[in-house]
Amino acid sequence: MDFSDETIRQAWKRANRRCECERAKHRHPSTKCGKSLLRASRGGSEAGAWEAHRKSSGSNQKSDSPSSCIILCRDCGCWMCDPKQYKNLVPWDQKIERLVDQDKRTYVIVPRESHVKHHLLVVLKAQRGKHKRGLIECTKDDLRYLGKTIYKWCSILKKLPSKYDTVYAGCYSDEGHVHFHLIPFNHKRNKGYYGFAMTWLAEKECKSAANPFCKMSHEKKNKRVVEFAKIVKELQGAKNDYGLISTGEIALPPN
Predict the structure, then answer these.
(1) Per-residue pLDDT at 168
(2) What is the pLDDT of residues 12-44, one digit of tens each?
């Protein structure tokens, strides 16, 4: 359930233009984050951006009151930093696993809205409660771990029964949270021509963006949930079948 404009207005007034995060794992210098926010930057990615989030309490999951609403800055409110959000898809109070792989620096999930059947997100984990907003902020170790995980899952995707011959990888995370999209496809079946990668990806993205999960009919949501569960199970099985249960089995390149 989304919050009403009035509820968000009251929560914003209570927050006094400051991030209200109190998560200990975020290692804030004081009890609360307190980062300064801009009213006009709700839902943005620039400095001062924020969003209204629901407090993680079972009794507040359907309440439209300021006490159930918390104002969080871009970093503290990032769903990719929160295991409760990225590990599962949670429609209609049921949990469906979406995490297919992880190591100490990365995790791999199936996105809620996929451009293609085995679309994956490879995400760099937050370190000490902070995430990297773009590749330019990444350390050499960050990039080595991302590269290792991308290599591993490209290898798995190529061996699926779908017979993928290409995997497009794109990082679209500047001013967000560093993650890569892995888009597998077969040229003859899915694309039919070489070149113009961005055009092909844009077509796929427009279709998925125009039909987000939150706006699907109940019938379509049910269908998507069933498909989602099958895809996750298939990918987890593929990971085990190809002997790549632990990313530690693929050695990192030397410095």
Answers:
(1) 93
(2) 999 999 999 887 767 777 788 898 999 988 876
Query: Whole-prediction pTM value?
Result: 0.76
Half-sphere exposure of 89 (CA within 13 A, CB side): 22
Task: Please say whether the dihedral angle defined by the alpha carbons of residues 35, 108, 139 and 172, taken in this order, is positive or negative.
Answer: negative
Sign of CA dihedral 87, 48, 41, 38: positive
- The SS3 call for residue 202 is helix
Return all residues near 93 (Cβ < 8 A) that are at least 6 apart. Answer: none
DSSP states of 126-191:
PBTTB---SGGG--HHHHHHHHHHHHHHHHHHHTSTT---EEEEEE--TTS--EEEEEEE-IIIII
SS3 231: helix
Q: Has residue 245 got a pLDDT over 50?
A: no
The span from the CA of 234 to the CA of 243, in Å, is 15
Residue pLDDT, tens place only, 85-129: 889 887 777 788 999 999 999 999 999 888 899 999 999 998 877
pLDDT at 246: 44
Contacts of 223 (CB under 8 A, 6+ apart): none
Token pair for 178? 């560093």
Domains of the chain, first to last: 5-77 (no CATH), 81-243 (3.30.428.10)
In three-state secondary structure terms, 89 is strand
